[in-house]
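Listing S7. Sequence submitted for prediction.
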Amino acid sequence: SYEEKGVPGPWDTNIEEIWHIVSYGWYEAYPEYFGDREDRSSKLTVAMDTARGGYFRDIPKQYPDDAWYKYYDPTCGYGCQTMEYFYWILMANMGALDPELTHACVESKDESEIINEEWGICTREELEQKDALAFELLNDYGFNLPTVIPDGSYRSD
């Protein structure tokens, strides 16, 4: 759990589902930055297409070898993949995927199944180095995006 530093705990999938609901507001309020539609490019979709190794309206049979975001779920179209990408970059940016905290990112690097190859950037430092467009979007435009990992403790003492 998050309380036991150095002992990776289970991933709370509620964080992902709640973020998907909250992020809808970002898509609508700032479409030029966070728009998720394939017919209008945004900074988010440009970053995602770079991470996927190109623009793919439909899921390719295989992403380019140099892609670091590979999403193969046939039920998830372009907009859905944009939402998943936004979730992954935010989690990496706030350190929620750090292997010291959870196996969530390490498990996504598992190459034994192509579907688990989705995302492999686990830390803020890796995000800054490997996905500069995403890092810039999350940190350089003055948006008040979350920077602290939710841990169930929300009282200020």
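Caption to Listing S7: primary sequence and predicted structure tokens for the chain studied. The mean pLDDT is 83. The longest helix spans residues 13-29.
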